[in-house]
Amino acid sequence: MATVSPLAKYKLVFLGDQSVGKTSIITRFMYDKFDTTYQATIGIDFLSKTMYLEDRTIRLQLWDTAGQERFRSLIPSYIRDSSVAVIVYDVSNRQSFLNTSKWIEEVRTERGGDVIVVLVGNKTDLVDKRQVSIEEGDGKAREFGVMFIETSAKAGFNIKPLFRKIAAALPGMETLSSTKQEDMVDVNLKPTVNSSQTEQQGGGCAC
Amino acid sequence: MLKKGKLKLPDRLGILVPGFEEKEEENGGSEPVFESGEELEIMEPNGVELGHKENEYEFDDLGVNDTVGDKVDAFRTRKRPDKNRSGQVSVMDVIAAEEKRSDLEHEFSQKEINLEKVKRIANKGVPDGGGLRATAWKLLLCYLSPSRDVWEKELTENRQKYAKLKEELLLSPSAYTRVRADAMISAELSREGDVAGPLKRQGISHGDHPLSVGQASAWDHYFKHTEIAEQIDRDLQRTHSDMKFFSGESSFSKKNREAMRNILLLFAKLNPAICYVQGMNEVLAPILYVFSTDTDEQNALNAEADSFSCFVRLLSDSVDHFCQQLDNSPVGILSTLSRLAKLLKENDEELWKHLEFTTQVKPQFYAFRWITLLLSQEFNFPSILRIWDSLLSNPFGVQVPIIQINFL
């Protein structure tokens, strides 16, 4: 085994309205923690993480963006370079869900079909405040032909599955994704999702 | 202002600010030799702990080495650096702080204040407590004139102006109409002595009701501002959320958030081309904090009005950076960032090459926030106040030292 190949690197850009939880999702993935004291992201921030998958190791470069319109003039260049666009909305904020169409279109304009797009409905822990159902989220994802998952960065729910899903869809991962498809914990469409906000115990992935 | 070719690495932040090297000599006799970065004040010699009442911070020292570490850490995790390190207090620090305190107090008691002298002292850090910093910042931002005699008159006028602006621009159209109507009615009452006949109805113009979609409708404007208010509120929820002054459900922190909301909304209304940009909350926070914790009761009570004027003054130097339309103009953020890159190339070509070519990390990826927010998201709160003492006392405005400090 031990064939030394250069680490495959992929850029992921996180987009979505102000305060939907982009930074929180990244921080949960990076450090497995959640904090209410995050400040608003100003401009752009980036972090990288190595993901150890069963048969290969990849390096993810995560680009965290500010939600506000004003900062978008700085965004196109890094949408252009990204393999993956993660578009986040807050399930307790309908407007942020409606605005994801704009974000998806912007990514499509910039990259055409040459990019993986994931729609993420975050903050599922806010059960009483939910304004967007999982069916609506799924419907929109189908309409645009993008992937979909619901998460709670606060509860640590579905964060690892989100990144495993992304990793499996990355170019050069086709064989892996087809063989692993049935192993994937496809939690996103289970109707019980609201009542199971418990911490996800990591599956087979060592990330 | 940087010497070309070779950057002198400062051991204290104060030295970064150009034009004040002479201060070294002037104070040389009394200035103890510190370990690098031990410049910040760390205790209140008079036992005045006003700033601490509502604040769990220890005002610890800001070691340059530490802050570089903090900066890296903050960058990585987007969290505020640890502020629980207990600072070591040396006798020399106490003496130096005490001297600065009495120097400033003396200067502030003069009929005509020597602004240059205030700048020289403030550049090295204003001692905490006693409202010295509030007065210093107001002077440095030219909100207070150097003539002490006119302070009261000017402050009163400015505060009245602010109250009027608030009334005109922040009340909903119906509330505003009501306030005006009340004023008119009470004026009429005082004229007629008693109510004769039915109350007069307010005239409402045809297009001016909440369901009107006309662009000119006062309500249309009002709803736009509700949207901005929501944006502001979302950011205020996460402004220094580790400090009791800004965060939590206490009436005290609610009042402070309300003040920040009013100021930011008013700014957005008065500057529609810029409106509210995320991060303005961070720039406003230190000002409101410093003014609200002034020991002078009148000043503390009027912190909102004073903060508004000073916030506007502070932004006047860098407001173009917040304006998207100016991004590609010579005064926009991109041009400032390329100035920074140029300075970096002149001072540390190796690092510049590494960033520019090897890693291809553009300045907008690492310095955008530093510059637009005047470093207010990079350090713990006491350190921000200390750094701003120097920024505000810079004779060339806050932007010049910001770009230079970034080389730390």
TrEMBL record, chain A:
GO terms for biological process: protein transport; vesicle-mediated transport. SUPFAM superfamilies: P-loop containing nucleoside triphosphate hydrolases. InterPro entries: P-loop_NTPase (IPR027417), Rab (IPR050227), Small_GTP-bd (IPR005225), Small_GTPase (IPR001806). Keywords: ER-Golgi transport, Golgi apparatus, GTP-binding, Lipoprotein, Membrane, Methylation, Nucleotide-binding, Prenylation, Protein transport, Transport. GO terms for cellular component: Golgi membrane. One of its GO terms (molecular function) is GTP binding. It is a lipid-anchor. It is found in: Golgi apparatus membrane. The keyword Cell membrane does not apply. PROSITE patterns: RAB, RAS, RHO. Its main location: Golgi. It holds the Pfam family Ras. Belongs to the small GTPase superfamily. Rab family. Protein transport. Regulator of membrane traffic from the Golgi apparatus towards the endoplasmic reticulum (ER). This is RAS-RELATED PROTEIN RABH1E. It comes from Salix purpurea (Purple osier willow).
From TrEMBL, chain B:
This is TBC1 DOMAIN FAMILY MEMBER 13-LIKE. It comes from Salix purpurea (Purple osier willow). GO terms for biological process: intracellular protein transport. Residues 20-39 are annotated as: Disordered. GO terms for molecular function: GTPase activator activity. It comes from the Eukaryota. Residues 127-395 form the Rab-GAP TBC domain. Coiled coil: none annotated. Transmembrane segments: none annotated. The lineage of its organism: Eukaryota, Viridiplantae, Streptophyta, Embryophyta, Tracheophyta.
